[in-house]
Amino acid sequence: MQVGVMGAGAVGTFFGAMLARSGVPVTLVGRERHVRAIEAVGLEVTSGGRVDHVRMAASTDLGVLASMDVVLVAVKSVDTEAVAQDLARVLPPATLVVSLQNGVDNAWRMSAHLPNPVVPAAVYVSAEMPGDGRLRHNGGGSIVAGRPLRAGVADGVAGTVLEALVARFVAAGVPCRVSDDIRVDLWTKLTANCAYNAISALSQLRYRHIAANDGTRDVMRMVTEENAAVAAAEGVPVSLEALALAVRKIVEAMPEALSSTAQDLALGRPTEIGSLNGFVVRRGAALGVPTPVNRTLQALVGLVEQTRRASASDTVER
């Protein structure tokens, strides 16, 4: 099985590295400096106090994905449509595409632009890129996959490829399973993101600090309640109790996690807040469900992001 990774940031690089370390041929597509570093000495992976170097192929050329059996997509949610259109130009229709992205609707958005079977997935991992060709794993590292979205002649083949991919992940030490209703898993992951990401971003603190504070625990509880109400209005069969449990378990599994939103904000990159708390706000408005806490967190992160962007622009102009 040939596996490509589109979007070799922390998440894509982590799962690609796990497969490559177990012997699966993996090709990362990413930024030039990251690619060059991996080509030179391999990917440096720090995890559990241990440092390894993992060899794998890497390229800046999207065309290398044309020969892959599976492409793992790990780009930012805001880039979903653009990447799907790019992939549509190079991928054979039978290639299985798997969304490892934050948010709920990415796989469906990709499927609108691709003839390929697209698999929605929820991933639980905390990782950072402290430098080019370097990955730091802070905790977690599991995948829950849905069924391929596009039915048709290749549907049976897509299911077989997905089963083989799940087996490869499990053999690589990545807990992976196929869900009976991926909507439940996506909303569960979304709620964990909504509860932690914005607070982590605004405070630049790791999850254990957030969960230890009475005030932020109250905010996370209110976010969870809002998400449960919106999910219920969407017809997603997930309970408030299940979502609250998932939020508590996240900090137990990865206490040293620093949210991707925090990393983006610190580095001056666009965040995914609009696909996390902002998604809940939009769906709540459409369904008549109030979401004031999610709206507040989205607004605050958006304010910091906008201010830093304006400041950086002003510095360049000067």
How would you describe this structure to a colleague?
The protein is α/β, with parallel strands linked by helices and 318 residues long. The protein folds into 2 domains: 3-178, NAD(P)-binding Rossmann-like Domain (Rossmann fold), CATH 3.40.50; 182-317, N-(1-d-carboxylethyl)-l-norvaline Dehydrogenase, domain 2 (Orthogonal Bundle). Helices cover 51% and strands 18% of the residues. The protein contains 12 helices and 10 strands. The protein has helices at residues 10-21, 32-41, 80-90, 106-111, 155-171, 182-203, 207-211, 214-234, 240-253, 260-267, 277-287, 292-317; strands at 3-6, 26-29, 43-47, 50-54, 57-59, 70-73, 96-99, 118-131, 134-145, 176-178. Strands 1, 2, 3, 4, 5, 6, 7, 8, 9 and 10 form a 10-stranded mixed β-sheet that branches. Helix 4 (106-111) links the parallel strand 7 (96-99) and strand 8 (118-131). The longest helix is centred in the C-terminal third of the chain and has 26 residues, at 292-317. It is globular and about 50 Å long.
